[in-house]
Design brief:
The chain is mainly α. It has one domain (2-271). It is built from ten helices and no strands. It has helices spanning 2-37, 45-65, 77-99, 101-104, 116-144, 154-181, 185-198, 211-217, 221-233, 244-271. Helix 2 packs across helix 5, helix 3 runs antiparallel to helix 9 (221-233) and helix 5 (116-144) crosses helix 6 (154-181). The radius of gyration is 21 Å and the shape is globular. It starts with a helix and ends with a helix.
C-alpha cells in the first residue's frame, strides 16, 4: 500500500511538472510571436522593442538636459532627468503595450492551451526584459560620456524600477480588458498618459511643492516610483513625500482587480 501511495504521489508530481512545462512553452511561444510581430514581422523585433523606448528616453533627456535648467540635486542634468524619466517610461510602456495584448492577439485564443492571462503575462515579461536592456544600454551611454550612472543604493533603485513596472502591469491588465470591450479606451488612456507625464514629478521635486499641490499629487502612485528612484541616487534626498507601501498596495490592487475583472468577463471576451 505504501509503495502504491508513493507511486501515486510521484505520478502526481510528474503531472504537475508537465503542466508547468507546457504552460511555460505557451508563454515562450507567445513572447516570441509578440517580439516578431510587434514591429512589422521583423526577426529583429526585440532589438526594435529596445530601441524604441531607448530613443524616446534619449530624446527627452536631450531636450530637458539641453535646456540649461539648474537641477536641484547632483551635477548632471541628464542624470537628474533620467532618474525621473526611466521609472515613468517603465510604467508607461508596460501599461500601454499590455493594453494592446488581447486586441492584437485574439486569434491566439482559438488554441485551447492559450488563455487571456497567458497573452497578458507574456507581454509583461517581454516589456520587463526590454526595460532591463534599456537601462543597461542607457548606463553604458552615460558612462561613455563620463557620467556615473551607478546609484548610491543599487538595490533600492532596482526595487523602484520593479515597483514602477508592477504598477504598469496592474494598469495594463485593466486597460486590456476595457480596451477589448471598448476600443476607444486606447485613445482615452493615451491622452491620460500625457496628463500623468506632467503630474508624476519627472521635472520637479514633488516634496518641494506647496502643500496645496503636494497633497493631491501624493495620490498619484507614479510620483512615488520617481521619488523612490531619486532617493536611491542622491544622498540627502528628501524622502518625506515617498510612500513605498502606498505604491506597492496600489499596484497589487490594480493587478488583483484586473485579474478579477478578466475572470468575470472572460466568456464575453472570448465570444468577441
Amino acid at each position: 500500500m505504501t509503495r502504491i501511495v508513493a507511486a501515486g504521489r510521484k505520478n502526481l508530481t510528474l503531472t504537475v511538472s508537465e503542466l508547468v512545462a507546457v504552460q511555460w512553452r505557451v508563454l515562450v511561444a507567445l513572447m516570441l510571436r509578440d517580439i516578431k510581430t510587434r514591429f512589422g514581422g521583423s526577426e529583429w523585433g526585440f532589438l526594435i522593442a529596445i530601441a524604441w523606448p531607448l530613443s524616446h528616453i534619449v530624446l527627452l533627456l536631450l531636450i530637458n538636459a539641453g535646456a540649461g535648467r539648474v537641477v536641484p540635486y547632483g551635477d548632471s542634468a541628464a542624470l537628474w532627468f533620467a532618474t525621473g524619466i526611466v521609472p515613468f517610461m517603465a510604467f508607461s510602456y508596460m501599461s500601454r503595450f499590455i493594453m494592446y495584448g488581447i486586441v492584437l492577439n485574439r486569434p491566439m485564443l482559438m488554441f485551447p492551451r492559450v488563455k487571456i492571462t497567458d497573452i497578458l503575462f507574456a507581454r509583461a515579461i517581454v516589456e520587463a526584459l526590454s526595460a532591463g536592456c534599456v537601462v543597461l544600454i542607457l548606463a553604458a551611454i552615460f558612462w561613455s560620456y563620463g557620467i556615473d550612472f551607478m546609484p548610491l543604493n543599487p538595490a533600492q533603485a532596482c526595487f523602484a524600477l520593479a515597483a514602477s513596472m508592477l504598477l504598469g502591469l496592474g494598469a495594463g491588465v485593466i486597460n486590456a480588458i476595457i480596451a477589448t470591450a471598448y476600443p476607444i479606451w486606447v485613445t482615452v488612456y493615451s491622452l491620460f498618459t500625457i496628463f500623468l507625464w506632467f503630474t508624476s514629478g519627472v521635472f520637479y521635486v514633488a516634496s518641494a511643492l506647496p502643500e496645496q499641490l503636494r497633497y493631491p499629487l501624493s495620490f498619484n502612485p507614479i510620483v512615488h516610483g520617481v521619488e523612490w528612484m531619486r532617493a536611491a541616487y542622491y544622498e540627502g534626498y528628501s524622502a518625506s513625500f515617498l510612500d513605498k507601501a502606498y505604491l506597492m498596495s496600489f499596484a497589487l490592487f490594480l493587478l488583483a482587480a484586473g485579474l478579477l475583472l478578466e475572470r468575470v468577463v472572460r466568456g464575453r471576451l472570448l465570444q468577441g
